UniProtKB/TrEMBL annotation:
Disordered, as annotated region: 490-519, 853-889, 907-935
Protein name per UniProt: BEACH-type PH domain-containing protein
Compositional bias per record (Low complexity), positions renumbered to this chain: 855-865
One term of GO molecular function: protein kinase binding
A cellular component annotation (GO) from this entry: cytosol
UniProt-listed PROSITE patterns: PH_BEACH (PS51783)
Biased composition (Polar residues): 501-511, 872-883, 907-916
Species for this entry: Rotaria magnacalcarata
Taxonomic path: Eukaryota, Metazoa, Spiralia, Gnathifera, Rotifera
Gene3D superfamilies, sorted: Pleckstrin-homology domain (PH domain)/Phosphotyrosine-binding domain (PTB)
Residue ranges constituting the BEACH-type PH domain according to the UniProt record: 1201-1309
BP terms from Gene Ontology: intracellular protein localization
Domain of life: Eukaryota
Amino acid sequence: MLSNVRSVVAHSIYSTLHSIGGVQVFFPLFGQLDHEQIDGSINYNVCSILLFTLCELIERSYTIQHQMLTSKGFLMIGYYLEKSSKQHINMESLNSLISLITFFIKIQSKNSPLLLKQLFTHIFFNPSIWINCSVFIQMRLYTYLATEFVSYNEMYDSIRPISGIIQTLNTLKYVYWIVEPTRPSIYQAKILDADRPTREQIVEMRSYMLLYMKQLVISGPGTQEEELQAILNYLHTINEDENIIDVLDLVVSLMSEHPKNMVPAFDRRLGLRTVFKLLESTKEGIRLQALKLLGFFLQRSTIKRKADAMQPHNLFSLLADRLSLHSNAFTMATYNILFEILVEKVSGPIVEKRSSEITSDWKIENSAMIKVIATLLRNSPDNVHLYDIKSRFLDDMILLSSSSRENRRVILQISVWQEYLLGLAYVYPSNEQQVAVTDRVFELLKILLHHAIKYEFGGWRVWIDTLSILHGRVTKEDYYRKINKMVENMKDDDENEPKTPVSTPTASGSGTPFDGQSIVTPTKSVSNRQVFSKTNQLPPYTISEFKYSPLHIRLLHSVFDAIESDVRAWKAEAPKPITDFINHSDNQIFCANIVHIISQMAEILCNACGGLLPLLASATSASHEIEILENTEGLSPLNAMKILKRVMSLSDLFILANTSNFSELEQEKSMPTGGILRQCLRLTMTTAVRHCMECRFQRFDRSFVSKPSEPLSPPPPSAKPAMKDPIESIIELTYLMNSSPENVADETIERLVASFIKNPESVLQDIDIQRLRAIIYRDVDDTKQTQFLALSIVYFASVLMVSRYRDIIETNQASLSRTASFMSATNSIRNGSIMESNTDAASLNGLSSIVAPITNNNRNSNETTSYDDRANTGNETDNADSQSADKKSVDLNAATSQYTSIASIPISDPSTVNQRRMSESKLPEYPKTNFDSNEPSAMNITEKLERTLLNVAPFLRDIFTEFSHILTKTLVGSHGQELLPSGLHALKETASVVELVMLLCSQEWQNSLQKHAGLAFIELVNEGRVLAHASKDHVVKVANEADFILNRMRADDIRKASEFEQLSTQTASERKDEEELCDHFIMASRQRHETNASRLREKFLAQMINDKTAYLNSSNSFWKLDPWEDDLRRRRRLVSNFDGTSHNEAIPNSSSNETEDDMILTLTKEENLLKQIKQKSQNFLPNNNEDENLSQVDEKDVDQEFSGPIRYSTESFLICGTLAIRGTLAITHHALLFDTNEDDEGFKNLDEKMIFYIDNLHGKWHFNEIRAIFSRRYLLQDKALEIFVSNRTSVMFAFTDRSIVKKVVGLLPRVGVGGRYGLPQQR
């Protein structure tokens, strides 16, 4: 190489940049963005050029990436961008940063995840940089984060989702709020409206922010509990509805789309308490979304999780209470969500009309929601919209119940479910909408009760419960109407009647009013006020005695319709007989429940139809007048007849045609043996005597009566007809087997009576005789039961036969008009006081002789002597004087005015019974029949008698014959002689009806029948009366029990709701503290970043000048003692002090000038030597500017934004020299943090110059930096810790007491602790 020729070595820009200090020389340039140019203007393109250049360098050089990481370059850039004008951040600047993100995600560099984390922490997740930028820049940023950024799966390994979520929520809370927070919110917005985009723009940007936050949640590892906790804290502590609605939508979306992770996290983080807090919102949108959140949680939870979450505090009941807080808040949208929760078919959007139809696969999953919906509907004020919601709910319940047996069973298992459904009905509907709602309620009740009766063991109890609860509902409604009427009357009286002041004379005789007020004279309104007590309380509410109301009648008919439809379905399956279905094992539950229902209704129904004994007395009275009837039990004659007709038809099939033993059923109801069959006998007798009365008084249209097919004349004695099975006859004759659903509801009582009167001239209808025959032959193996039934039936038939015989004789003897007497009797019944026949059987005048033992023994007792105690008294005789002296045997040709007492059953003297005014007569006005009105007069008495008693006489003769072994010892004469053998011998000689009647009319037979058979009949009647009272009392008892259960449940709900409220208040306080602590640490972290950035700025500026020369030559350089310590804990290093100031004591001595000159020369020579060595060494190294083998910077050297959730935090003091600075010490899973409370008065009183010399005001130490932990004494108390870290420094904290010290030590790494804390000493 020639002289004066030098080699030219080309260096890359990276080597050149490295030679002047590295990439950090760029950072001070960002601090000069706001410096004015020569012309006084500011170039706003410099920032984009710098960022573009820097990004290009980073993308092209691994060394630059390493330098950016070690120098925390993005922290520095974010620091300068935050301080400079936001006009510098334009679209080119943002695009450069976005391209850098894409580069970091796609390259496979070791340091790119750490760089990406720094980039997001210090720039993208720093709202102070972006909030004041143009709207387009902000929209571009959050659009990118929500769309392109979240599509990179690799980035989730670099960014901790919890950190991004917490920072995003903090940004939404303090920066991008929609409504400025006011009380009761305790935080203040950091950015005012003047510096923010418009409301619509903020709403849109929030939506993008929540989109990428959603991706951060679902991309995180584990169950996302920490992420969900942060969101729940936000929802629980923000009180402005507009500021939480979109975040709530996010949680609902997460719960619906990712239930596998979100549901367990939601449960463990007590998300339900947040839901119930949101339900208090006055905005319906918030409440609807909160309900959606609850619905998705329940829908995707296991049965155990749902039970553990909802049952301990009865949260379903609390749900109804919360929704009831808002008036007129129950809309169709709310109902749709509640119904979705009921069936766990929760949909995403909120709709007014459900699109999907209910099918058989829809199941009731949360049955308690029925109570919630019903309670809300009941408590809401009536309006048109509420009627629509009620109708929709009932229609949905009908569809659910109709489509699934399981759904019906679930509803029936709800405690007091009838109360919730009946609460929706209207006892006294006032418009068409209320009528429609009530119709739907009873349609649903029909479906449920039919299921209970047909499929559920013990379903009859459900029926009784329903009747009882309905009775309580009607009683309560009547009570409220009565009270309202009383109050209205009081108001009217006060308004209409004048008040007359009365002067009270005083001792001086003056007319001054007493106490300065006028005395009001008593008026008519005083009587109205007497119903109130002196304490102005309402009269007490009590459930009255059971009576059938229109709603009870409606319920009865609807259930009967359902039962009869099943029977008709069996009938349609020809040729299989109906008895095969009744006695099939699959239908045993159905039959047993129906028998129980008949048993429960029998006695009350007998009374409702007039009572067996009063009806029999009226049907056989000599005066042909209707005498005292039983209480109507709230039923009109038409309704009583309709119900009796249907009950008897069911009794024909399910009791008489049923071959099962009823002993188990009787034990279930604690009835005596044979009680059900005796109830059936009372029903049959009541029906028969009612038919007899209808025929006697002709209260029906004869045109509807079917003509008998057999001849009216009796068959010849020699031609005895073949005996047909009574059950077959009953099945053929019963109305249910001869009617269709269309003609069940008869319009008038005439048509109704005509439907079961087949032979008006006969004393008993054929079906009645067949029923009696089936009853007496059913339990022939039970001797006592058979004897009792036979005697009762013999007496019943004998009374009717003899009374008819008397009527025939009377009508044939003289043509007497009885219409006037009947009309007067009827009018007296209608207008006068009708006596209630509640007397004992012993008080019957006409039967006094046969009930003498009962009268003597039980005159003062409500109990009756059982028939079994008198079964063996057949040989005992009674004095003939007990009979009336004028009663003689009746001769066929001479009986014109004397009749046997057995033919007439008058009621006792009116003075012996209580009187009650009846609201309606059992039998309306209609003319009595004249048996000869349409018959030729030539017909003699024998023919009439044969025609009238043609069917009953053979029946009675068969009883005498087939049960002679029982009746012989019972029916004895006045001297103990057996009457039946001689009577049977006479009857066998002839089949004449007259002979049988004459036998019954004889004096001996009358005495025996009255004494023995009549006694059995009276006991049968008395048993029915006792059971009737017991049945009505049981209904009232069950109604009271239902009220008690409801009150107890309500008290339990209130108690548990109070407990839940206390827990929710505690949770709210904890979440408020967590949120405040989180906000505090985010703020402290940003202050820490700012402090670190400031120090790095000073460091980089110092590196750009020669520190040694500056120290020796410049008089403006200041130094301070470094906290670094040597092995002997001596602080022997000085570092630059950019905040230093001069003072008199810091002037150096002049005697040291010579020494300083020597030091300057020495240092200059050493520096030149080092430069030469370094330059020469580079010539021997390969030119590898893209060294990929540089060591990776460990994550501990990178200051993270947030180190996960706080495990423990406590108040502490940072001990620094003589100062104790109050702050908060927090411990996460990986780091220890301390943040000074800058609002503390002690900190505010510090000299600002001192703050620069206090380290760790916002400090953070990773666990892997901690080398030792030692206990220290502070103020002579063992309550401090000194922690030594890897950079040869230490920090000391003081706590409140020693227990906190132990907690802190237990959470810190187990290094240098010692055995005092129970932890081994490790390194």
